[in-house]
Amino acid sequence: MRHIFQKQLHQILLVAASTAILAACNSAPPSTNTTSADKSSAPTATTTQTATSPDKQSKQSIRVQLPFLKQSLDAPLIWAIEKGYFAEEGLDVSYERGFGNADTISKLGTGKYDMAFSDVYNAMEFNDKNPNDKIIAVAFYQNKAPFSIVTFKANGIKTPADLVGKKLGAPAGDGPRKLFPLFAKEVKIAPDSVTWETMEPKLRETFLLQGKVDAVSGFYTSVIPSLIKGGKTMDDIQIFFYDEFGLDFYGNGILVKQAFADKSPDAIKAFLRAYFRGMQEVVKDPSAALDLVVATDQSKLMDREAEKLRLKLAIERMYVTPELEASGFGGADPKRLEKSIAQTVEGFKLKPVTAADLYTDKFLPSKDKRLVPPASDRKPLQ
């Protein structure tokens, strides 16, 4: 009898121990995926610090869309993410590639993203068609638009007047192409004195290299690196910068829907503080910024030399200008902006609007937080 009792007691203890072990396993916290700024680089599940930690949950999520594929032009954003500047401001910033400025604005309008990097002039078209769903700029991170006509000196086009009778190429929705009638007006040629060939964006430079067109319109930060990669040198290329021929437009800005601006003003202010802190660091040490962008490219297809040229053009013509050195990153001169808006209204045939309808500086950090670093603090891009 005693032997039977001991055997039953032993079985009961084994069952109890097994139950305790199972309960402990079921109460362990599950592993989760962390969130990455670049969705293609999200790490695998881990049981260490995770995206669902209290610290992560306390940060406001900000979804950003780029104007195109990630490039060296996105260095201020990448720097601010990787160095933790956004996190210090209480933000969890993620981004996705874009498919051109117009598409980026359209997706911002749907509410898929909280912020977008695009140009205010395409936003004017969106607002004209969607007056109750307005998009505004809260900063300009490119002080000058990269609008241009690009050709080869060998084509005999030395001045804009030489474009008469030539064939120009660009995608149908290209901004500089749409503004060409205004460019033509400024350089005193007839807008219909040229013919246009339409192609996909990825084929624009190929058409020029193959001689299928005499010149192309586009962003010089996109066109020139592609032509250099195609075997040309800077000495081969002739560029007509729109801003040197009466069209002194601002470049891309940081855009939000008016509804988001009304709902989350503090988040916008925090974003801009971190972003322009990143911009200052990029201008101080562009080589380090370029290396960081290349290192975060998950495709491993980014061409450092092409991105180096792209960033060089941006810093020299868009990120560091006399206007910015006087007023700091992010702002806009009211008279200059008003003139460019009036030109866009004419060129795009839109309803008249004012700068106040499209841009506000109330979210910008104080000037001392967005000063352009002095030349003595800037390292050369290598």
Task: Outline the structure in words.
The chain is of the alpha/beta class and 382 residues long. The protein folds into two domains: 57-144 and 251-377, D-Maltodextrin-Binding Protein, domain 2 (3-Layer(aba) Sandwich); 147-244, D-Maltodextrin-Binding Protein, domain 2 (3-Layer(aba) Sandwich), CATH 3.40.190. The chain contains 17 helices and ten strands. The strands form two sheets. A five-stranded mixed beta sheet has the order 2-1-3-10-4, with helices on both faces. Strands 7-6-8-5-9 form a five-stranded mixed beta sheet. The longest helix is centred in the N-terminal third of the chain and has 25 residues, at 2-26.
Mean pLDDT across the residues is 87
Rg of Cα set? 27 Å
Structural class: alpha/beta
Number of strands: 10
Helix content: 40-55%
How many domains comprise the coordinates?
2
Q: How would a crystallographer describe the biggest sheet?
A: 5 strands, mixed
Poorly predicted residue ranges:
1-54
Instruction: Give the full name of the CATH homologous superfamily of the largest domain.
Output: Periplasmic binding protein-like II
Helical region count?
17
- Distance between termini? 89 Å
Strand order of the largest sheet: 2-1-3-10-4
Give helix and strand order, one letter per element, not per position. Answer: HHEHHEHEHEEEHHEHEHEEHHHHHHH
Under CATH at level 1, the class of the largest domain stands as Alpha Beta
Q: Which outline best applies?
A: globular
CATH architectural type of the largest domain:
3-Layer(aba) Sandwich
